[in-house]
Write a structure and sequence with these properties.
The structure is a single chain. By secondary structure, this protein is an alpha/beta fold. The protein is built from 6 helices and 5 strands; from the N terminus they run βαβαβαβαβαα. A 5-stranded parallel β-sheet has the order 3-2-1-4-5, sandwiched between helices. It starts with 10 loop residues before the first strand and ends with a helix.
Length: 172
């Protein structure tokens, strides 16, 4: 009788700047957790963007928001996501897609990623319909203008946004 190969862990990477981590992001992580054994949330250094929160702050916010989800690790990264996937033995990249515009962009990225690492699949997941309108950019703007973002982010992220905008208004 042939030996049964040992089970392999299906690892997926969910990457982004997460500035801030929204309830839409959280929903995608929870959905991905039903499909994969492990999810690595890869928080991008994002040298090409001006972020509201530092890399360390964003990593901590994501860790806090996802601490109750089994099989999730949160790591900072820079460079190509396909190199990160190879280094962590990931079989897939998870991407949240809210609308057609997201899909067009993510499909192009997925095709390019396949050229770089053909063995890594790109999996598109739709967040819950009630969360599809949420984007980090809009959350930052609404918060900056004094709007209530508690239905869009975790309580910890809402507090961090409020503190960041209060500090910015004082010139700190």
């Amino acid at each position: 009788m042939p030996a049964t190969p040992p089970p392999t862990s299906r690892i997926a990477v969910y990457s982004g700047t997460f500035d801030p981590f929204t309830l839409g992001h959280d929903d995608v992580v929870r959905r991905a957790g039903k499909l994969f054994d492990q999810i690595i949330i890869a928080v991008a250094a994002a040298h090409h963007k001006k972020t509201l929160f530092s890399l360390q702050d964003r990593v901590e916010q994501v860790q806090t928001a996802t601490r109750d989800i089994v099989g999730v690790r949160v790591l900072a990264f820079e460079g190509l996501i396909m190199d990160f996937c190879a280094a962590h033995n990931a079989c897939a990249v998870v991407r949240g897609v809210r609308n057609v515009t997201d899909f067009d962009y993510e499909a192009q990225m997925g095709a390019m990623n396949r050229k770089l690492q053909p063995q890594v699949e790109t999996v598109f997941l739709l967040p819950d319909a009630a969360l599809q309108c949420i984007s980090s950019t809009l959350v930052r703007e609404i918060s900056k203008l004094g709007g209530d973002v508690r239905q869009m982010v975790s309580p910890a992220v809402a507090a961090a946004l409020g503190a960041a905008h209060a500090a910015a208004s004082k010139g700190v």
